Amino acid sequence: MIPGVKRGPIAWFVENHVAANLLMIFVLAAGALTLGTIRQEVFPDIELDAISITVAYPGASPEEVEEAICTRIEERVASVEGVKSITSRAAEGVGTVTLELERGADSFRVLRDVESEVDRITTFPDDAEEPVVTEVTRRRQVVDLVIYGEVPERTLKVLAERVRDDLTALPNISQVEVLGTRDYEISVEVPEATLRRYGITLSQVADAVRRSSLDLPAGTLRTRGGEILVRTKGQRYTGREFEDVVVLARPDGTRVTLGEIARIRDGFDEDAERITRFDGKPAALLEIYRTGEQDAIDVAETVKRYVAEHAADLPAGVSLAVWRDRTDILKARRDLLLRNARLGLLLVFGSLLLFLAPRLAFWVTMGIPVAFLGALALLPHLDVTINMISLFAFILALGIVVDDAIVVGEGVYHHLEEGKSGPEAAVRGAREMAVPVTFSVLTTIAAFVPLLFVEGTMGKFMRVIPLVVIAAFSISLLEALFILPAHLSSVPPPRAKAGPLERFRRLFGRGLSAFVNGPYAWVLRRAVAWRYLTVALFAAVFLVTLGWIAGGRIKFVFFPKIESDRVTANLVMPQGTSLAETAAAVARIEEAARRLRDEMTEGGRPLVTHVYTLVGQSAGGAGPQGGGASGSHLATVRLQLLPS
Description:
Layout: H1 9-15, H2 17-37, E1 47-56, H3 62-77, E2 83-91, E3 94-101, H4 107-119, E4 132-137, E5 141-149, H5 153-168, E6 175-179, E7 184-189, H6 192-198, H7 202-212, E8 215-223, E9 226-233, H8 239-242, E10 246-249, E11 255-257, H9 258-261, E12 263-268, E13 275-278, E14 281-289, H10 296-310, E15 318-325, H11 327-353, H12 358-365, H13 367-378, H14 388-398, H15 403-417, H16 422-448, H17 456-462, H18 464-488, H19 500-529, H20 531-550, E16 566-572, H21 579-599, E17 601-602, E18 605-606, E19 608-617, E20 630-641
Antiparallel strand pairs: 1-3, 1-4, 2-3, 5-14, 5-15, 6-14, 7-12, 8-9, 10-11, 13-14, 13-19, 16-20, 17-18, 19-20
């Protein structure tokens, strides 16, 4: 028991150094272990609380789609319980209606009700395809690969599918999609004169093809040796296999096959008007996604290793490149946090040396890693991962978590200067500062609590910030009140005979005391004496600040505009422009990009690293495919710049 000190939690930890050390080691170890297992992703994985209804109406203009598709869907789903708002988008050949759900609504029940209402619509045009009703999810795209070269489209598609199969066979990659190429299609063209000569119709030809390209079960044969499953194998996959399909069988035994009356071609979907180029060469795109508990950085590193190991296996003239790695920004934010943490530790320790003894300054500074690793250990239990938002929250808390430890440390050092023993000074200093430090942390936490109640999709992103900050502040308070006093109890009192560092610290302290007792005290006394004038001055500053905001002098934006490593050019030609004409116009933009690439360099490297071109679609999303509107009159050119 410490003489002259009452018992309590703080005194118990000061008396039992082992318990305090074990608690600190437990917090540090838990954070270090969590750091190796916690999932890393670019943005938090959340539910978007939205339902999408898509109906394809081939050949229809946006006005026709709006009237015949979107309006009729809106009328049916407006009364569904749980729907907060309805947004429609009519484009050439397709209409999309997006429903935002109310907070707390059962998305599965609302999805079922919406499907029922859409199924009741009987007034869709005959040419419209079946509605597709899905729950909107945020796809967790990690990185893109591009296969490009002066080779036929079929070669690119075959190579892209081979790379896709190789990637999905790897242990930590589950989802890869091939984009930028058209779907396979076998076209059968029968001249009208041939149909008349043989006395058949296109419907008869289609029925013959449909009946002759099937795999059908034919039942079971029971024998003494067991059962035998009978199955007919008639599915055809190539144009040559369709040539011997019997279209017409005459009574005399002669037959007319499809190859005799039609031109059969193995090709691609001619209705899908799209051209994809990368650095001026035909290209195919592979989008790699993260699923489940997969780590985004691990997925990206696996893809890069695959490119390094297998790029040489591709045919001559074909190259494989990483187009956009979305984990770059995550790694940059993580590196920024580590740099700031190292710099913060040095600055805090250096600043504390001006006021406190070196050992005391060291233990106060240790509050930063203890608070951060402790908060990191709590993140999985709060359903938070390492992502852009949580890293921002850590950076935000970096300069605040050590404040309570500084206050407690200064209080302990004050008692040491008065001649008290280390244990007594630690307990008295911590107890004196416990109430103000606790309320200081609670008021800071209270400032972040409202972010937990922000509604909508943005609220699900924003909730990460208060969870991380509250966890860090709570661990910091625990460390300052129980672990720190135990360590400071062994700090010796100031010695009468001081060394160079102590003499400098005392000189700095006398200078600071002179400032506090001189100019600062003079201003403070007059501010208190003329309190009405002081209040009026601060009120005037407050009103001027409000006036600047209300007058538009200080702009209010949701996200500030920052420089990007990409440049995007969207081309919109007049409605009805052919794909060839749009491609010719895009070629001029590509040529300008190539000239820019040759002229502008930085450190001997071109400022423009890659040029991605997509004709037949405009950019509307994060990926190269954009997710925007499609049409032969649209195009997008994207330039990847040298990372800044």
